[in-house]
Amino acid sequence: MANCVIVGINWGDEGKGRMVDLLTERFDVVVRYQGGGNAGHTVINEYGKFALHLLPSGIFRKGIVNILGNGVALDPENLWQEMQTVSAQGIVLSPENLKISDRASLLLPWHRDLDELEEARLGDKKYGSTKQGIAPFYSDKYQKKTVLAGELFYPDALRAHLSDLLEWKNLTLTKVYGAKPYTMAKLEEWMEAYCEKLKPYICDTGDFLRSAQMKGKNILFEAQLGSLRDLDYGIHPYTTSSNTLAAYAPIGSGLPSARLDDIVGVVKAYSTCVGEGPFVCELFGDEAERLRRAGAEYGAKTGRPRRVGPLDIVATRYGVQVQGATELALTKLDVLSEMEQIPVCVRYLVDGRETDRFPFPAALGGAKPVLEYMDGWKCDISGVRRWEDLPEAARRYVLFIEEAVGCPITYVSVGPERDSIILRGRNNA
User: Model pTM greater than 0.90?
Assistant: First the structure.
């Protein structure tokens, strides 16, 4: 049995979905273990192009069991709509290939309302939330004021629980924000429209995973966002509200006894960032717009333009360290193909001193990038499939990153399609 985690090394949006889609042929089970519908994994394969927000990216492979673990912010409305969308494109979903943990907490409609209300209250100090209810959801979860998916099978207890939550939540909505209260009728209508449809997929996924472990099945754990958005180790407070690190995979998946054999960190050949907060290597103006257009850098969930910049070695090395990455997948190398000179952020200037250590969050706002430039290759590499066929300048760029961050790059992506990949290192060279 092999247990592998695929995680983001930077701010998210690195291309984790395409890597899960690629690697699932080696695995029996794919588990999404944290986060919610606030970010997207873009996958392109023989079925078409998909932006997944809650469904695990292994859903496109026949014979793979896909699980939404207890660490996920389970949004029944968005999940059901996403299931309908992929089903319409020929993907068969059933309780055999999609399972939802009965211990996953439900993201309720008021969580999205509270997210939007708080961002509006913050004004120009907002966190850059996608307004999908994630922060209010996790706040409630750790206050033990959420509904578990398994409660849907106990209607009398569920109604009493919802009644208590409703009384408490309406105090916040009306007294703090001056918003309209919820009614039990409105909640029950929402439950009927979405939660009831998900009940066939809800089960004891912990029991399923323990059985799979005993049978020697190969399990792939899929993370959302990246290292710098981790609640504890990211750029606080501009983080998500869950732990995006590989170390959380056993807990959030429902298999706390799992031992991780491989941690594949995904990093882009340049930097992108959605949302607010310090982004030391950020480009602006025409230079930024050219890179943004070349890479089609617009959020999979929101459609908003991503902030862009050169590859940030300081942030990437830190991401590798906190993830404990054993190997890296470098994505979107092809996007840089038209550049004469490729900038790389190799150090930060903080308080007048250069450093290669990632600073404490409060110091990031004043940090400046120290750039070096590497020669570009000025040719199309999207059709290359062998390491030795890459232009020498492209190989030098990859090897420079590998040495600088201290982790082997075993996958080099030269396009969004499943087969647009170069395998190197280990047994792939």
Answer: yes
